[in-house]
């Protein structure tokens, strides 16, 4: 899905919500465990319950990998079930030498048909470029939302005066246009959102951390939005585990609607 | 496998060779393609041909992932086939927020029973620590051997004067002892090996890049070895694709023997 099509979906749904499919056998409703594939059954019902209110789904690949080959089958079925007009993100944090990154790209783009994959920048240009496919996206880690993000991402360069995450933002823009490259910017970095947006004015940001990780949707939207929205804000646990009984899907709908309505306001207020 | 046991294996075999199982359907001998699982059949014959001369096997996870669920099955069979006394490395370059890293650890340690996994440091402490299991190892990327390694790894901190890869070396030593933590140091960084060894005197280094990537085994050994050897040097393509016909396994043996004999010399010369 290209940038224009993504923005069309955002306008159509008045939403920039990404639903994180962090599907965990220990957390899904008990009554699903008798199904032949509880992970897929849960995802299917969550997708049915939320697809009108979100523009993207983001399976967290670790949750599927941890189940071995069966997990990959659940992921494959999930990908086949997600409607065509919804953007898909493989949250995989991959990145390796060129020939290896090319294989990871093959996995997520050719095998599973994701629109995008999250990539860790530590190994530099030749670890990132193999993910540049036509009409597919690299979502590069810039400033993440976890406690350890300050360990290395804030190291300031003696040469440029820029922090590591800023070096990633600036340097990677030489590798790909805003039509193929997004950045991960944690919602817990809301106070930095304005300066990060100034360094990458046109790019989409994938913003995890609203909800369970404690980010602030209003601040993120106010300081992070650009004219084409430029934001995909992820919420996983707060939506998919809103309920834990027979009504879990309705509860997920209610949470998704709540976020979507808030987003609708911000879109009219800030995306101009 | 703990550090003492690993060093025992190194002394017993006079080798610190790690064989990289970068097994690729496009590169394995044609006559294996009629097998029900050509990837496993190739690995099995390579393991039979090389296990006396190496102390570790390193499946590059991308090669298995790219084949979907079937690839994971080939990996599982390969892991079951590797002899117990050989150290195993999941070359996966993972790393994510705590609960997600914990699931990646579960995948490679609990499901596949690897001894170690390679981890990318960009997200910091809480992305690394979930991989600290008893008698298991984190192999953290420090200075890699690919061209893009200079993009971010050489950024020098205005505060400490250390480069990013040195910050990784120093800071991560607060998170784990040399009994649970190794570093990836590319063989193409041979000229820096001495200073890197000074910053992490006791740790094992996993050194990729000897062979196809152009590293120099002698220089790596001379400047990188410590009293307990402290090196695992990986060779993949040069060994596993030494031949491409019916005799590919014998050709792999010949290459492995050649490297092992060279290593035997260096062990006696430098590991004192």
UniProtKB/TrEMBL annotation, chains A, B:
Domain Orotidine 5'-phosphate decarboxylase stretches: 16-252
Segments crossing the lipid bilayer: none
Top enzyme category: lyase
EC code(s) of this entry: 4.1.1.23
InterPro entries: Aldolase_TIM, OMPdecase_type-2, OMPdeCOase_dom, RibuloseP-bd_barrel
GO MF, any single term: orotidine-5'-phosphate decarboxylase activity
Matches recorded under NCBIfam families: pyrF_sub2
Catalytic activity: orotidine 5'-phosphate + H(+) = UMP + CO2
Annotated family: Belongs to the OMP decarboxylase family. Type 2 subfamily.
Coiled-coil spans in chain: none
Name under which the protein is recorded: Orotidine-5'-phosphate decarboxylase
Pathway(s) the chain acts in: Pyrimidine metabolism; UMP biosynthesis via de novo pathway; UMP from orotate: step 2/2
Keyword Electron transport: no
Keywords annotated in UniProt: Decarboxylase, Lyase, Pyrimidine biosynthesis
PANTHER family registered for this protein in UniProt: OROTIDINE 5'-PHOSPHATE DECARBOXYLASE
